[in-house]
Amino acid sequence: LVGGSGLYVWSFVEGWKMPEVQPDEELRRLLEARAQQGDRHGLYRELQSIDPSAADKINPGNIRRIIRALEIYRSTGRAPSQLRRKEAPSFPILVIGLTQERSDLYGRIDRRVDEMIKRGLVEEVEQLLKRGYSPTLPSMSGIGYRQISQFLRSEMTLPEAIDRIKYETHRLARHQYAWFRVTDNRIRWFDVTKTEGEASVATMNKVKGLIEGFIS
């Protein structure tokens, strides 16, 4: 679940079409500047006051989507949630979900973050900044890049940045579990908690069988 965005995947599955509103680059720069100056929560509160329905579907830490929603509102004068439309996909869809106990998931996340640091995440972000990539760019605002950028600007220590990456990723996982509800009968769920050896192979074969049956 952590590797992708629950909202984008589910929007695709349910056939939601986003409003086609051209970007307002000047407004976007102004809003990004506000976020960079520490007014991220202010932007989210502004969206809540304009369109509570849209705000409820956006992670408060997802500044890029918050700014886009505000941009749509200021360009059209209408709440983004009012401009969305839904069309059922014209093709069959198979949705497979992997789930596990929360403590196990958090442990895997933490180990993954530690591994990313060992493999050079700090050096990667440092090189991107040296090449002129602004920390306010959407591509630099994701979990990991944002916190390491803050460390490199001496806004926090490296251990603090690492802890923050883990915390934000845990929170993302919780949000995605909320989107991909285990009770949703459109999803074929497989619990991989402590699945090892023969049990792991059996689970993998079940998933493989579902996919092969779906595409045959």
Structural class: mainly alpha
Tell me what portion of residues adopts beta-strand conformation. Answer: 5-15%
Average pLDDT across residues? 85
Apparent shape: globular
Order of helices and strands: HEHHHHHEEHHHHEH
Q: What's the assembly state of these chains? A: single chain
Helix content: 55-70%
Number of strands: 4
The biggest beta sheet is recorded as:
2 strands, antiparallel
Q: How far is the first residue's CA from the last residue's CA?
A: 26 Å
Unreliable stretches, pLDDT < 50, 5 or more residues?
none
| Radius of gyration computed on alpha carbons | 20 Å
Number of helices: 11
**What spatial order of strands do you see in the largest sheet?**
1-2
Describe what you observe in this structure.
The protein is mostly helical. Helices cover 61% and strands 6% of the residues. The chain contains 11 helices and 4 strands, in the order H-E-H-H-H-H-H-E-E-H-H-H-H-E-H. It has helices at residues 6-14, 25-36, 40-50, 52-56, 63-76, 80-83, 102-118, 121-130, 145-152, 158-179, 197-215; strands at 16-17, 85-86, 95-99, 187-191. The protein has a two-stranded antiparallel ribbon with strand order 1-2. Strands 3-4 form a two-stranded parallel sheet. Helix 2 (25-36) packs across helix 5 (63-76) and helix 9 runs antiparallel to helix 10. The two termini are 26 Å apart. The mean pLDDT is 85.
